[in-house]
Amino acid sequence: RVKTKWAATLPRIPATSLALHNFDVNYGLQFGDLWPSVRVAMLCEQKYGALINNFSDVPGLLSELRFKGARDFVQSGRSLGEGTGGAGRLPGEGLTPATGSTEEESMLPEMSPNIRCFVFPKGDIARFKPARPDSCGTLSYYLLDAASLLPVLALDVREGHTVLDLCAAPGGKTLALLQTHAISQLTVNDVSESRMNRVRRTLQSYLPREVWSGNRVAMTTIDGQLWGEMARSTFDRVLVDVPCTTDRHSVMEEENNIFKKMRTKERQKLPALQTQLLVAGMEATRPGGVVLYSTCTLSQLQNEMVVEQAMHVAQDERGVTVEVEDLGPLERHFESTFHFAPRQRLGLLVIPHLTANFGPTYLCKLRRVR
Length: 370
Ligand code: SAM
Known about the structure:
Helix content: 25-40%
CATH superfamily of the domain at 18-44 and 147-368: Vaccinia Virus protein VP39
Bound molecules: S-adenosylmethionine
Number of strands: 12
């Protein structure tokens, strides 16, 4: 009898195809008629935003970006008299509240006037050039998925706050947090030593040494699941930007793809790890403080269901109570920039769309009550 040679002869299915198949099955059900348009957007070129680096000085940069048709989506909805720190702001920019009522505006997080991020308008697929260094070699902006700034804005960092960035690498959100100039003490953590080195390199390229090397910024490589016990009720704000199936990467890139057969177990364990990280984040937040959960996946299993599970575990096993905060005002404020998924039970989901190809980004804001 001739033995069939399975392993050697069967063609290997690319991880990107496995990811797409998995998404077709799951997201087809989750999003229904909406899925084909999200799918096509995820398979097309992603759109970026340029996070302005306040620590660099490139003359004429903001006017140059505006001349090319980009606009600052963070500050452009702020109303008059809020002290927008509007250096270089053009007349008319930043004067029209995107949300009509003042009551609704008062429910928005305090968006630091120091966070400025330029994007091209909906439907415009222009790209930003790589950032230029100033005379000291500091880079003028950081390119990132503009939707990934929403968790930082929703975190609502205020003057003097202590902040824990639990899963920080490669450091895009850390850099945005530091742009606020408001944080009294920032702990930047990631379990991976090599990925923390990437954070260090990013901070070195964007910030003067005194900002990241002093006592105000601590860098740690501790398993995030341990922070609850280690620093119970400590921080004013905790950002829990967890590892996930990184959907856009998974359908586009073979390298480091979590849908590779050999990573199946790791992928299946993600919701459990995400839950433990969020529980630790809740516990490390002081009562009255805010913990922000975020991912870059569309998966309900990794988004809303993790939040629900973590709330149960925190309550039953750690005696920690949190309440979900309404992000409706934030959604309405930014609806001219992003496409949001309808009907989230908890939190907010930015879905990729051909005219605004940002995301996926999921965020849920929780306030610790007890
Ligand atoms: N916040 C980052 C940013 O904006 O650039 C992105 C974070 S990335 C989505 C998730 C990170 O979680 C990875 O860098 C990974 O190394 C880290 N991670 C995975 N398991 C962890 C754990 N148990 N504790 C802390 N960090 C962990």
